C-alpha cells in the first residue's frame, strides 16, 4: 500500500521559505499605514515581475519561469504579490502550497525587495498567506527556516509560529532547518495528542503501523518496532490484494489487538468479505472468504463486538472521547491521487477537522515524519474518504484499554 504524488512540474521540496536570501529582507518594524502597499493575487501578467524579483532576491535555488507559470495556472497553490506604489513592478510576493485532500498549507517561498525594507512588508505577506490558507479551509500553516536565520525566526515566532521539528543537512551548506507551524483553527494541542507516531516500513504494512500507534496510545508499555509491525501484519493480512502482498483487513487488525488483551470494537458497514473486489481470481476470492470466516469465529470466541452500520465521524468521535483510539480505513485517492486502501490512526477532533497520524511517509518525495503527524482533514472530506472500492467498504477498529493478555502473545 504505497502512494505516489505528482511533483509540481519538477518543483523540489522547499529549501527556501524564509531562507538565507530572505533573512535580512523581513522587517519587524511597525507598519506605516501611509506607506503600506496593497497585496493582491498574482496573475500571469505578473510573470515577468515575479521572475525579476526572484532573481534579485535569491542567488540560487530559484523558482523558474516555467514553475511560476505552472503554479499560477495549474498548481495547487496561491501566490500573492505586493506592487510598488507606481504599480510598475513588484516589491514582494509570498507563495502558499496546499496539500491535496488534507487541510495543511505550506508557506513555500517569500521574498521582499531591498528597497521595501523597513515597511513591515514581510509581516503583511505572512498574514496574507495565513488568510489565503484559511480561505482554503486549512487548519495549519507550516514552513522551514534556517537555524541561524535569527531575523526570520523572530518574525515567525512573534506571529505565533512554534517549532515542531528539525531537518538535518537541509540547505546547500548543510545547515539544519527548523520546522515551524501555526494553527489557523481551533484544534487539539499536539502536545496533548495521545497517539505516538510510527512510520510504516513497507508498502503493505500501513494497517499494522496504524494499529501499533493506537495500542501504544492506550498502553505506553507497547514497544513500537519493526518486529511488532511484521508480526501484526502476518496476523491481520487478507492474503491477497490486487497485486503484491496482501494488506491488513479490519477483522485481522481487530483480532491482533484482541489477542494482545486490548478492549476492541470492530465497526464495519456490511458483512461482505473485505477487499473482495480487489482480486479477480475465483480461487483467491474463496481463500479470502475462508480467512475472514475464520477470523470472525475467533472474534466471536473472544467476545469482540462487531457493529454493522455506517462508519461516520460522529461515531468515531464518541468513541474517541470515551478514551478509545480509532484506526480507520480510508481510500487514498483524495490525498495521494492514487487509489489504494489505507489505514490511519485518529488523534483528535475539533468543530471542523478530524486529525490523523498517517503511517505512510514517502522519503523519496521529500516527506518527513512530521508531515504525517496530526494531519487535519475537514470532517466532510473525511466522511468521503472513509470508504474504499466499488462496494464502499467502511471499517474502523476501535482500541481501548488492555485487560488480560492471552498466553503466547506479545506487544
UniProtKB/TrEMBL annotation:
It comes from the Bacteria. Residues 37-185 form the N-acetyltransferase domain. Residues 25-38 have a biased composition (Basic and acidic residues). InterPro entries: Acyl_CoA_acyltransferase, Bact_Acetyltransf, DUF3335, GNAT_dom. Keywords: Acyltransferase, Transferase. Residues 1-39 are annotated as: Disordered. Coiled coil: none annotated. GO terms for molecular function: acyltransferase activity, transferring groups other than amino-acyl groups. Pfam families: Acetyltransf_1, DUF3335. PANTHER family: AMINOALKYLPHOSPHONATE N-ACETYLTRANSFERASE-RELATED, AMINOALKYLPHOSPHONATE N-ACETYLTRANSFERASE-RELATED-RELATED. This is GNAT family acetyltransferase. It comes from Thioalkalivibrio nitratireducens (strain DSM 14787 / UNIQEM 213 / ALEN2).
Amino acid at each position: 500500500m504505497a502512494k505516489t504524488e505528482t511533483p509540481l512540474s519538477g518543483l523540489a521540496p522547499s529549501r527556501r521559505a524564509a531562507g538565507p536570501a530572505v533573512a535580512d529582507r523581513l522587517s519587524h518594524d511597525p507598519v506605516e499605514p501611509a506607506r503600506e502597499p496593497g497585496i493582491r493575487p498574482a496573475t500571469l501578467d505578473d510573470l515577468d515581475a515575479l521572475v525579476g524579483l526572484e532573481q534579485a532576491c535569491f542567488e540560487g535555488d530559484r523558482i523558474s519561469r516555467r514553475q511560476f507559470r505552472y503554479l499560477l495556472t495549474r498548481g495547487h497553490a496561491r501566490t500573492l504579490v505586493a506592487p510598488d506604489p507606481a504599480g510598475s513592478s513588484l516589491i514582494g510576493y509570498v507563495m502558499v502550497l496546499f496539500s491535496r485532500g488534507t487541510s495543511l498549507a505550506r508557506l513555500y517561498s517569500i521574498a521582499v525587495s531591498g528597497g521595501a525594507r523597513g515597511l513591515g512588508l514581510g509581516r503583511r505577506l505572512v498574514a496574507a498567506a495565513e488568510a489565503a490558507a484559511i480561505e482554503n479551509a486549512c487548519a495549519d500553516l507550516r514552513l522551514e527556516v534556517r537555524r541561524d536565520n535569527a531575523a526570520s525566526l523572530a518574525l515567525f515566532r512573534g506571529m505565533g509560529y512554534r517549532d515542531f521539528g528539525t531537518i538535518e543537512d537541509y540547505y546547500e551548506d548543510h545547515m539544519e532547518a527548523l520546522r515551524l507551524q501555526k494553527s489557523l483553527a481551533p484544534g487539539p494541542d499536539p502536545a496533548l495528542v495521545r497517539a505516538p507516531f510510527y512510520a510504516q516500513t513497507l508498502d503493505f504494512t500501513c494497517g499494522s503501523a496504524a494499529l501499533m500507534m493506537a495500542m501504544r496510545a492506550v498502553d505506553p508499555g507497547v514497544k513500537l518496532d519493526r518486529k511488532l509491525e511484521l508480526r501484526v501484519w502476518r496476523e491481520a493480512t487478507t492474503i491477497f490484494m490486487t497485486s503484491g502482498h496482501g494488506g491488513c483487513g479490519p477483522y485481522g487488525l481487530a483480532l491482533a489487538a484482541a489477542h494482545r488483551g486490548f478492549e476492541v470494537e470492530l465497526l464495519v458497514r456490511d458483512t461482505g468479505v473485505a477487499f473482495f473486489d480487489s482480486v479477480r481470481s475465483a480461487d483467491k476470492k474463496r481463500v479470502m472468504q475462508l480467512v475472514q470466516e475464520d477470523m470472525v469465529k475467533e472474534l466471536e470466541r473472544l467476545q469482540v463486538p462487531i457493529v454493522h452500520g455506517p462508519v461516520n465521524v460522529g461515531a468515531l468521535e464518541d468513541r474517541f472521547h470515551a478514551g478509545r483510539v480509532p484506526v480507520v480505513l480510508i481510500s487514498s485517492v483524495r490525498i495521494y491521487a492514487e487509489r489504494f486502501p489505507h489505514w490511519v490512526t485518529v488523534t483528535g477532533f475539533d468543530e471542523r477537522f478530524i486529525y490523523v497520524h498517517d503511517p505512510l511517509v514517502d522519503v523519496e518525495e521529500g516527506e518527513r515524519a512530521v508531515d504525517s503527524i496530526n494531519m487535519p482533514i475537514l470532517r466532510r472530506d473525511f466522511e468521503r474518504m472513509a470508504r474504499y472500492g466499488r462496494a464502499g467498504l467502511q471499517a474502523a477498529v476501535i482500541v481501548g484499554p488492555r485487560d488480560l493478555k492471552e498466553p503466547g502473545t506479545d506487544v
